[in-house]
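Listing S7. Sequence submitted for prediction.
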Amino acid sequence: MNATPSSEPPQTPVSCCGSRPEGSAELARAREAASTASVQPGPHTGSRNGMAWLPGGVFRMGGADRLARADESPIHRVRVDGFWIDVTPVTNTQFALFVADTGYVTVAERAIDWEELKRQAPAGTPRPPDEMLRPSSLVFTPPARAEGRVDLDLFFQWWSVVPGAQWRHPEGPGSTIDGLDDHPVVHVSLEDAQAYATWAGKRLPTEAQWEFAARGGLESKVNVWGDEPVDPTRCNTWQGRFPTVNTAEDGYERTSPVRAFPPNGYGLYDMAGNAWEWCVDKFRPDEYARRVREAGPDGVTVNPQGPDQSYDARHPHSPDVRVQRGGSFLCSDAYCASYRPSARMGCTPDTSLNHTGFRCVADGPGPA
């Protein structure tokens, strides 16, 4: 566990695979759920195993609408080659099958390594007590309702480090994923997402692939559905006064089923809201400016892989910050509006939260 929102300490990777539980009850349940899960692939140009084929092309990457932040500009032209992409984020059912088949233990389920924590903390940081190094993850916890407005710059007010919170217990001990089979798996670190992708014979998307897919063929639109503003029928976001009052007009206070809202133009679900999704690129707020300098204002950057080194002012001591895309059920126009396809966030790779998941991509060839 690491805490992107509140700069809590990171957790170092350790041995994460146990014995392979062939024939276990968990594996049997996961396989049964996977075999009965509805697969509705995208209609674009082809599909396979719940993935849609996107033929690639040139698009305008970035945003300049009134909600855009500085790290979304300048808008620049990017070309991506064709690729396959999951129609939905990885669900609890799919992740359970992976865990049952491999014995994988997620980062949130492991104790925090103080030596790794110390490496990413400011010099002189004292060792925290043992109870602070227990396996844990970050859970959204609304602050008490107040008459005045909550200072939205103080995000630690609504994030709690919860021992025992992990993908099977998204709100902490006592919570379960019973009945949430088709919800996106959450409390997933970058390492966890990459382990799943490798097992599935896939990989995580680049940031450019993710935005190309999210736009669904629409050019320079504010949202994945066009320029119309967000409303409760379009995606799972926050309604009400963030972070104290969620009216849940869209029907969900937390995550929603991955096909609860309409797909985009490529037949992809949840490219806006519900749960943040990991990309493989390192994060820098000035990455787009660097591309324009190299390619020129009218040039095209081909298959960008992200910068060699990351930087994020919110994580000044972290040597590695990665991109997340898509926003979550916590997004609000009054706070971050990150359900927009151009919105970006930097996150340390060992971070896990109850609004972070992922989807995978795979390389061609495309459909015959």
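Caption to Listing S7: primary sequence and predicted structure tokens for the chain studied. The chain has a mean pLDDT of 86. The CA atoms of residues 272 and 326 lie 5 Å apart.
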